[in-house]
Amino acid sequence: MSQTTVDQVTEPGYTAARDRPPTGTTGPWGWARANLFSSWWSTAVTLLLGYLILRFAVSFVAWALINAVWTVPFSPQGVPNTAVCQNAKGIGACWAILPDKYRLILLGRYPYDQQWRPAICVVLFVTLYGISAMRQFWRKELVLIWIGTLGAVGVLMWGGVLGMPLVTEDQWGGLPITLILATFGLAAAFPLSVLVALGRRSTSLPAVKMLCVLYVELIRGVPLVAVLFMASVMFPLFMPDGVNIDKLLRAQVAFILFTGAYLAEVVRGGLQSLPKGQAEAADALGLSYWKKTGFIILPQALRMVIPPLVNTFIGSFKDTSLVLIIGLFDLLTMGTVALSDPPWQSFSTEVYLTLAVIYFVFCFAMSKYSRGLERELARAHRR
Amino acid sequence: MSQAVHNIPHMADTQAPPAIVLDKVNKWYGAMHVLRDVSLTIAEKERVVVCGPSGSGKSTMIRCINRLETHQEGHIIVDGTELTDDTRALDTIRREVGMVFQSFNLFPHLTILENCTLAPIWVRKMPKADAEELAMNFLTRVKIPEQAKKYPGQLSGGQQQRVAIARALCMRPKIMLFDEPTSALDPEMIKEVLDTMIQLAEDGMTMVCVTHEMGFARQVADRVVFMDRGEIVESGTPLRMFEDPQTDRLKLFLSQILRGH
Amino acid sequence: MQGFPAPDLHARTVGHNDEGGHALAMSGTTADPRLIAARAVPKKALRMSWSDPRFRAIFWQIVIVGIVALIVWYLIGNTNRNLAARHIATGFAFLGRVAGIPIGESLIQYNPAIDTFGRALVIGILNTLKVAVIGVVLATILGTLVGVGRLSSNWLLSKITAVYVETLRDIPLLLQLLFWYALLEALPAPRQALHIGSLIFLCNRGIRVPELVWESADTWALVAFLVGAAGTWLWNRYARQRQEATGRRPAVWPVALLLLIALPLAVWGLLGAPTAVELPVLHGFNFQGGGVISPEYFTLLLGLVLYTATYISEIVRSGIQAVSLGQWEAGGALGLGRGAVLRRIVLPQALRVIVPPMTSQYLNLTKNSSLAIYIGYQDVMSIANTTLNQTGQAIEGIAYIMAVYLTISLSISLFMNWYNARIALVER
């Protein structure tokens, strides 16, 4: 190989970076070209979608805002005169139903002068979610916070102490019922699910493992409607003579059993994702099964399952709407109750859209949080 | 300007037409200027090693040669065909140019043998039996014929990379591109891959190889090209480049590489 | 996830064997440990002592299973007493009684005056399957389109599909169903029905579409199509064999076109090409003739498809993203065209990621179809509920519901296990 070749040696300094040749790939026009009109196919999609969106937006704004009816006159007996709304039907929304019915929809048939109590409960629940979402509160004390808050909710809703008159469950309704079912359901299903998940992973207790598998697969195999239905039909048969469980408790038990089965699978996923070395290290230290599980395995596994746990909670929050079938008055049921008032009967779209916004705000906030957390945990895990 | 002559030290020796010509190639990612007036001519059977710090554009350049990336200015001519938007030209070039990736990119759902026969069957239209014979031939050359029925996940990194080389060779390419083939490997596996590449070089394959393996460069390369900040800073024989670096940037790079090893 | 523990277990047993072998080599007096004959693991006797882990395991299992059995026994006892007090006889004798419950739509003949509860419950299953099967097909198509749309380089398309997915996922399905049902009910009466070219009518009684009058020529055309499908399959096999032998693959699509479209058309044409179509006609206050899609069925189908498609789109999206860009590049660098890379390299890998969560979405859709009961579509739940109210046979009704849904779930699980096993074989 010859070594006397002429080498290429450019200037020791750096060649200055040049701007891209002016092909219009930068700036707003460049952005539009790259993202909206990059090919004839893309251009066609953009134009078609743009046209449809514009048309929909224009007619929606006209219906929801411009032509909407915001108030209607009431007779001295408090009966609304919805003639204006009837005339505007199909052209404009009738938002007048909301100021008339919002307390009924949100808080149900709770005694009117006592409605501050369920309202505070809603605030308590939202605060509880907020606190649980913050990482600095992920300590043992969080359990106490949950127990305290749920206890406070019980006291506020039932009353009978501290000068608050007793209000029985059949008068509860609206958003508090939705939040109670979902939150108490999660709180009770969580310990259950951890035990079931541990039982299902057990190698030394085959009979217990069988029971856990049977429970999880039976529940996951049937729809929630069927479970609720069973709860409402079978519980009266299960109870000894004279004992009667009210509807709310039946639904709550059904929710706990249902959520527990799904959560158990989530927790099992977390347990499976732990490297085997962790358990072996604990064994090598001579820790007993419960110490090993409580101090080494669960704290790590549960941290990993928080995002899917939040997703399960979102699911059960949406699923609370199904209690309509056993005659409980959750948020959605109260919406249909409000719509059964003859003057408002034909304005379901307005009510359903409002309810959709409420559900959406709760679920979207939670799923946004869970996705952010998932990314964060994945990053921490990789490190 | 006689830059082309400067660029091809062995042109006079080999008398062969150039296999690859890059002429003032420029490329941008968004507003970032990643290839700056890169000109390089590689003769047939020449072995070129491209080195440089990370982010210097060496991978981008090699990926432009078989158009995994598109350049925005300048010309790239491979085996007499200029790379343009024309897909027919692209098809011809990709058949003639084999590529080995840093992350192997074997197809995990196919056996080793199927990985190697896929392209000969579907691109070269070979009968299955012939393709398998060819593949076994090359797997024997990279010394892993006994793994043919296994899946990539069952092989070590070094074995996977040798399969990747065999897979590319099964297309009977005229030119082989290597994009940091040993960077993702554990130290004890680097040698087996380098040995395969040295054997390939001895067989007279035109090779362009992005690597930091200076021992390999010394042993095999006809020419070392040093890139930094998207441009070719210096090029020459391995001996001259390593013993007598002309630019401060190469000196700095070499000192960092040596310290790292 | 279910596939993972097995290799671990395997690894563990292998590890134990290694340790055993090692220990033998260390303690053995012979120079070559291989000469020692293999022995079975010695059986240790169970000690009746708290310090024996096996004794503890058995003790705890007896305690836990005992508690569960006690609870079950207590509940069964209560149930029997309650049933006796209410004078309800258990058993499935009621299945043979005349049902007398009206059923709006059914795939098989049903007359409430003469047909039995048994037949009514079968109709429930058929109605559930009708909405589930068609829902699964439509949701898969829509979900795939949306999933691909979200990955589109077109900003508007990817944003609009994202908004669709994010919104509908976060609103309860039941609320969506009630909303669509209210919208359909707000449609004009049959007399003022919206229509598309006087062929398809949209009114508050549902959707009316023209219906083909089925004749023997149509049957023969269908037979020809099936024959054509079989022929195409055979030709495809032949093409593969030819390719393996010679490297040249005979073109498949012209033959497929000929067999699947031209052949049935020719048969249909030779038999007189009957084109009789029954059109829906307004008659009094409602339409007569033509096919009808009831508002309940349409609402349920629409709601299920729109809701499930959001989940399917996410599965499809992550499936496509799971295949690294490197696979596309490696395929391209080998000279394969985009279509070939997609067909031979990317799809087989993406499907492996997509199929397991997809089947669980199919199961979800089927389970969610039980929301039919809220809008009055008569599926399994709804007919079981009516039957239960009429006969008081609560336990049997629940058993029927459980049996139907568990059978569907079990079938899907079995398919999943079969699929996972197949994948596992292909993988390693």
Question: What is this structure, in a nutshell?
Answer:
The complex is a heterotrimer of chains A (383), B (261) and C (428). Chain A is mainly alpha-helical and 383 residues long.
What would you note in describing this structure?
The complex is a heterotrimer of chains A (383), B (261) and C (428). Chain A has 383 residues and is mainly alpha-helical. Chain A has helices spanning 27-35, 40-66, 83-88, 97-107, 116-133, 141-158, 175-201, 206-221, 224-238, 247-273, 276-284, 289-304, 306-319, 331-339, 348-382, and one strand at residues 8-9. The radius of gyration of chain A is 29 Å and the shape is flat. Chain B is globular, with a radius of gyration of 18 Å. Chain B contains eleven helices and ten strands. Chain B is an alpha/beta fold and 261 residues long. Mean pLDDT of chain B is 85; it is low at 1-14. The longest helix of chain B is centred in the C-terminal third of the chain and has 16 residues, at 187-202. In chain B, α5 crosses α6 (128-141), α6 packs across α7 and α7 (157-169) packs parallel to α8. Chain C has 428 residues and is mostly helical. Chain C has helices at residues 5-27, 53-85, 117-150, 155-169, 173-185, 216-246, 253-270, 295-322, 325-333, 338-368, 372-375, 380-391, 394-427, and strands at 194-196, 200-203, 206-209, 211-212, 277-278, 281-283, 286-288, 291-293. In chain C, strands 1-2-3-8 form a four-stranded antiparallel sheet. Chain C has a two-stranded antiparallel sheet with strand order 4-5. Chain C has a two-stranded antiparallel sheet with strand order 6-7. In chain C, β2 (200-203) and β3 (206-209) form a beta hairpin. At the A-C interface, α2, α8, α9, α13 and α15 of A face α2, α4, α5, α12 and α13 of C. β1 of chain A pairs antiparallel with β10 (231-236) of chain B.
Number of strands of chain C: 8
Mean pLDDT over all positions of chain C: 81
What is the overall pLDDT average of chain B? 85
Total count of helical runs of at least 4 residues of chain B: 11
Category by helix and strand content of chain C: mainly alpha
Strand order of the largest sheet of chain B: 6-7-8-3-9-10
Q: If helices are DSSP runs of H or I spanning 4 or more residues, what is the number of helices of chain C? A: 13
Q: Whole-Å distance between the termini of chain B? A: 39 Å
| Low-pLDDT runs of chain B | 1-14
Helix content of chain C: 55-70%
Interface with most residues: A-C, 58 and 60 residues
Across the major sheet of chain C, the strand order is: 1-2-3-8
The best one-word shape of chain C is globular
Largest sheet of chain B: 6 strands, mixed
Order of helices and strands of chain C: HHHHHEEEEHHEEEEHHHHHH
Strand content of chain C: 5-15%
